[in-house]
Amino acid sequence: MNQQFSYDIAHLIGATVLMAGFSLLYQRRLFAVLNSFAFQALALAAAAAWQAHVQDAPHLYFTAAIALLFKAIAVPFALHWLVERLGIHRAVETALSIGWTMIVGVALVALSIMLVLPVTAAAAALTRESLALAMSVVLLGMLMMITRRNAVTQVVGFMALENGLILAAVSAKGMPLVVEISIAFSVLVAMTLFGIFFFRIRERFDSLDVAYLESYRGDRS
Amino acid sequence: MLIAGALLSLPLLALFAVLAGGRHSGHSITYAGCFVAAIALLAGGLTYLGGHDASPRLVLPLGLPWLKAHFRIDNLSALFMLMINLGAAAASAFAVGYSRHLPQRRRVTPFYPLFLLAMNLVLMADDAFTFLVSWEFMSLASWLMVVSDHTEEENRRAGNVYLIMAAFGTFCLLPAFGLMAGPGGDFTFDAMRIKDLGLMGGFLVALLAILGAGSKAGLVPLHAWLPLAHPAAPSHVSALMSGVMTKVALYGMIRILLDLHGTLSWHWGAGLMLVGGITAVMGVLYAVLQDDLKTLLAYSTVENIGVAVIGLGLAIAFKGDGQTELAALALVASLYHMANHSVFKTLLFLGAGAVISATGHRSLTVLGGLLKRMPWTGTTFLVGAAAISALPPLNGFVSEWLILQSLFKGPAMPHWAMKFGVPVVAAFLALAAALAATCFVRAYGIAFLGRPRSTDAAQATEVSFGMRLSMVVLAVLCVVLGVIPVTVTDALSHAVQPLTGTQFAVSADLGWPWLSPVSATRGAYSGTILVMFGLALFAITIFAVHRLGTQAIRRADPWDCGHPEDIPQTQYTSQSFAQPLRRAFGHTIFKARETVVMPEPGDDAPATHKVTMFDPIWSGLYAPLGRVIGWIADHVNRLQYLTVRGYLLMMFLTLVFMLLVVAVRQQL
């Protein structure tokens, strides 16, 4: 197996993660968002596994396993269950229309490619393009957090952002496992927090729209 | 040892003042202790003056763990220690008696020793960290005393403005020192002296130092806080702030510009000189129109700082041009004026304090005739007023004369800007000196001469012995510093030599009593001989009048001084005395307008005379600035009420913007 082939596969999987990021932005239904997220996590797990194979770094298999079990299976199921259990409105409420979001997303991808490719001119080709892809995924995750009103979609955006970070982490050679574990744990903590958060919002306001929180801020005159 | 002991005793005195609570004796003992400490520091400073260049350095493990506190007393520090502790000793001695009359003394006394401590530490600091901490400590200690009488709206406003301006000053000095320390972060002054600042760094350091130290010293247009804050404090503190703390500010300016900065071009000197000239004229113009005795004195401080800064600017210009001998002359003149000002301004503020404690008033409108009731205060105040008006043979004359003499050497500079600029500044200085004389004729004449304008003034009694003593000592010093000018300039030249590189030698031409900065044939002055001659003339005149004049006794009505009616209202008031000047200068500068409001026909109310003035610097610079800051604050305030998504959006946009900047820079 020559090097070029391994690069191509790595880029293919990375691009799949990115496409899943766009697909997250495109969905109009909450369950579809969750499915897209599961798909993205699956692609991430594949990327990590492929890197583990190519770099001959067995600890990355562990990362792939975390991504697969935790992000691609546990989290989407948990959120699915939450949405059903709470009877949340199933449509995605957008702050910026889907079309515009896609255009901005494309611009962000262009920006990150423009930015990363010259900066990492000295680095290995594999790292360079994967970093550009990872950064695009991060930016798209942030974009999702901003342009979607519903708290569930914000959580998903946040975790998509984490996916981007992990993609960057596995693409760089020699990244120690400690980092991935800490990232996974931070997602876990965020998940727990947001879970509690949902229940509280649900209890108080019968809605998950974060705008309802704002009337409770003491400093608002 | 002596100095360390005195410095350590000051915080203990502050603690003692807190413990003493409201008892009179506790406050008196604290001030007496401050007096002893100031005398000790004065003696300590004297031992260092005229010492060697390699003054001992002291490094103490104080402050931040990786930055030790460095202390060093060189000639310049020693000289300023003399000025400061002299004023401090006099003010402390005065306060022993004066603090009895202060209702808010429990809020003043504990901070007084700390204020002294901070000022002395600024002078001794040998690294930027110690310097700035002491500087800020000095500001805060004095601020606490300014707002000690916080029940009055006026004082609260003074405190606010003072705090803002003090913060502004430190805000300027901080990056100035940071630039001098460089990225390595070596904050000792020794390292800063060696460091080359480069073109941009040198420019910024000089600008920031002038702004930072200048705002503390009260250079126009940064003076706005000074006439508010100095009079708001109790008089012994006003004396310290006006007479002494402004000198600490000038010390900071000299230390940075002439010592640490190293290479300043003559442009800075020229600019500083012009600012000094404008400060002098504006300060005295404000002063001459004031009705409040202490505000008048505070504005007069602005004027004198301007005069000293003219000398300082000239010294920098000469030094930048390589004419070190003339630079030494100008700097000696400037330092001489600072020393003089610290003596007579302290004296005048203490005199004002004596007037306030005797009458309870500080408005000239209700004073009058105090000389008869308070002969000691009146006489010493007269000496101070004459000295500040630059009358020979007192000290104020010598220093202003020296500054004028060095200005006359200005055309020796090769630059046309200086050739033309120097005479303009000399004209400013002459105008300021003349207006200062008017100002103090008015202040003294209205307050101490004539008839009392109120019952409080009529029933005033002389102040206690300790207060009188400190004023008398200062008045004697005013005379002494004026009579032996050469001794003073010799002492000053020790401090000047390391800064300008040349020993100042004026008395070489004509021998000891003659001060002849320019040449032996023109521009020579000897206070000593003048006084001896004057005394001789006085004796001869008295002898002639008594021996040669007629001995016959004549009886006649005494001259009624132009107001035959025996009511105080017929005298000049403080406003009417200032009217000619208000019309001549105030009309354009302060937009002073006088209107007479006539009563309606048939109405028997008196006609009233109304004067409206407005402060061009306050309404032209400070008020718009305040409005702009308020506007920005109002609009930035909205950021506190964004939604969660709004904050996320802001972070996102910031990130994208910064990424764009990086991306664009790469393409270039």
UniProtKB/TrEMBL annotation, chain A:
**Chief location category:** membrane
- Classification via InterPro entries: HyfE-like
Give the transmembrane ranges.
Answer: 6-26, 33-53, 59-83, 95-117, 123-144, 151-171, 177-199
Endoplasmic reticulum: is it a keyword of this entry? Answer: no
- Which Gene Ontology CC terms are recorded? plasma membrane
Membrane-topology descriptor: Multi-pass membrane protein
Q: Which domain of life is it from?
A: Bacteria
Q: Which UniProt keywords apply?
A: Cell membrane, Membrane, Transmembrane, Transmembrane helix
Q: Where does the protein end up?
A: Cell membrane
Tell me what this protein is called.
Hydrogenase-4 component E
Organism field: Magnetospirillum gryphiswaldense
Starting at the broadest rank, the lineage of the source organism is:
Bacteria, Pseudomonadati, Pseudomonadota, Alphaproteobacteria, Rhodospirillales
